[in-house]
Amino acid sequence: MLVEVLTSVFNIQIFLFIILGVFTGICIGALPGLTATMGVALVLPLTFGLDAIPGILLLIGVYVGAIYGGSISGILLRTPGTPAAAATAIDGYEFSKRGESGRAMGISTVSSFIGGVVSVIALWLIAPQLAKLALRFSAPEFFLLAVFGLSIIASISGNSLAKGVLCGGLGISLSFIGIDGITGFPRFTFNDINLLSGMSFIPVMIGLFAMSQAFRTIEDIFTPDQVSQKISHVWPSKSDWKIILKFAPISGLIGTIIGIVPGAGAEIGAFVSYSQAKRMSKRPELFGTGIPEAIAAPEGGNNGVTGGALIPMLTMGVPGDAVAAIMIGALTVQGLQPGPLLFTEHTTLVYSIFLGMFVANVAMLVLGLSSLKLFVKVLSIPKAILTPMIFVLCVVGSYAINTNFFDVGVMLFFGIVGYFMQKVDMSVSPAVLGLILGPMAESNFRRALLMSEGNYSIFFTSVIAWIFVALIFITLLGPQITALFKRKTA
Amino acid sequence: MRKANFIVSGVFAVFAIVIIAISLTFPPSNHGVPGPGMFPIIIASLILVSALSLAIKTLTMNKEEDTAIDLKSKNILNVYVTMVGMIVYFVLLPLIGFVVTTTVMLILYIKWYGKRSWLKTILIAVIFVLAIFFLFGSVLNVPMRFGILI
Questions:
Q1: Which of A104, A126, A204, A351 makes a 20 to 30 Å CA pair with B133?
Q2: Cβ within 8 Å, pair B22-A416
């Protein structure tokens, strides 16, 4: 199998796809207004015509590149290219003010690489074990796992639990449309032939993540683009290396753990790593004034999320973040069902993804250190030209999945809905995660009751099930209980 | 934000009630095994409860916590005009065809946003549309013929 994995990744075609993905990702990440999720959603249609391994590695390349690329504009313009680089922008821009933007970007590149590699190693070590455990899951456990995922998403994404539930609920409700998988009864189809096969979620995702984001860019389309400065001295100095090696690996690990948690993405990974580094540092008062550890930590942390987010996605079919949700879409298009069986039936594919992700991180390091000047040039692409082009990519991308015109309408509808959701402070990620976890929860819930002939005690018969029940309670009631506790002691 | 929160909670409450009303017409549970309507009703009830709790929370919210949402400034109006343009484009796309409609759409948007010369604008739009058409139509084998004018 080792030989198969090596030959499937170490060939020029795959390398080119990975490098193309990373390059595109860095450009997308560097441009403010284009997020990693948007990038992956826009590139996704290109993978329909590819085989599974090059297709998924292209997307992973974009993901890894975009999370790193966000730091470029964060450092140069103080405008993070992606939300994940918001923490980096704080100190990164201080470097630029001193004329040391090259130094900041060098630190960011190396730390992103280290964070990414730590997460790939974690992915490699944890995922197969978790898949083995998940093989023992049957319908009741999968139902509880889906509910656990949904409860985390509702409680951590966005500022308000109620809004999180509303968004997640919207996503789950969309999944009801179409023929019911268990009874064959058509639900919410309104006698429309397009709705019979259900809402295909790729147009929904392109709408919610790419189109709505493009509409947001229109808001300040007439403000002039910022001019960037020249950069030099990218390779970190000896003293910077010491700091990078102290902070980036730990941040990478923190990021990985956060990535595993469904719904918590790279921006949370970056901020948690940033505050952890502040606690670890001997000079916390200097954070915010432009010190190397304040870049190394969030950059290690956000790239750490990339590998972590794939762990629950590949092993259990539960997306670790919105990008992982889109990758589930990519795998499904290829006829592959993410979950424990992927590890036994498509072992080569799984290990090729692991190895390919490592290669993507190396490509990111090499491109970052060698071609930063080129990526800085990307920042001068006017958004007045770029944004209408994104419209076209959204339209073509959503059409390409089924060559069905109806899907374009779905994409446009959710683009508009997503725009207004963000306006009223509702994060769109829970909707997409709900769209994936909803059917998983429902079908396993009903399958479990079919197995037990309607006896609900089936959900409490195994140790794993009890663990999930406990986790669901902790997630939903934990914040309320700690708040109550704090009020009592205060 | 107060007004927006009330609108959100209202819209979702209506949405949930519609789901419940439709789900009640679905076939019932069979020997304790839930029918197709059970899960939608559970989720819709959750949505309803959350919508109500959002409304109550907003009612008891301090005035100081309230933040303004911009839905009417000139910048936002540009977004609305863009949205309407996209809807018109979506309607015309199957009638006229991908290449022509998309090129015209791109030219109009780029010209409006960027104030570049007509020649430059047209050149950018035509090259991009042809590149996409070739990439999807020939390399990725997506049938790109929507209408009469390709």
A1: A204
A2: no
Which pLDDT score, from 0 to 100, does residue B82 have?
A: 96
- Cα A216 to the center of its chain, rounded Å: 20
pLDDT tens, residue by residue, B50-73: 999 999 988 887 777 677 787 788
Closest in A187, A383, A450 to B33, CB measured: A450
B53: closest CA of chain A, how far (Å): 7
With vertex at residue A397, the alpha carbon angle to CA A409 and CA A331, rounded to the nearest 5 degrees, is 115
The C-alpha atoms of residue B107 and residue B129 are separated, in whole angstroms, by 11
pLDDT of B147 over the 70 cut: no
Please tell me the number of Cα atoms within 13 Å of A133 on its side-chain side. 16
CA distance A192 to A406: 11
User: How many separate domains does chain B show?
Assistant: 2
Which pairs count as long-range contacts for A182-191, CB under 8 Å and 24+ apart, including other chains?
A: A182/A443, A182/A446, A182/A447, A182/A450, A182/B36, A183/B27, A183/B35, A183/B36, A185/B26, A185/B27, A185/B35, A185/B36, A187/B23, A187/B26, A187/B36, A187/B40, A188/B19, A188/B22, A188/B40
* Domain range for B15: 2-65
Instruction: Say whether B51 and A423 touch across the interface (CB within 8 A).
Output: no
Q: Are residues B19 and B36 in the same domain?
A: yes
Does one domain contain both B45 and B24? Answer: yes
- Predicted complex ipTM: 0.93
Same domain, B90 and B51: no
- State both tokens at A8: 């499937």
List CB contacts (< 8 A) between B38 and chain A: 446
Picking from B141, B129, B4, B82, the residue whose alpha carbon sits closest to that of residue A166 is B4
Q: Which of A44, A41, A39, A88 is nearest to A65 (CA)?
A: A39
Distance CA A369, CA A357 (A): 18
| pLDDT of B148 | 62
- Name the DSSP letter for residue A236: P
How much is the pLDDT for A273? 93
- What pLDDT digit, counting tens, does each position of A135-160 carry? 989 999 999 999 998 888 777 656 67
Are both B79 and B53 inside the same structural domain? no
Residue B78 included in any domain? yes
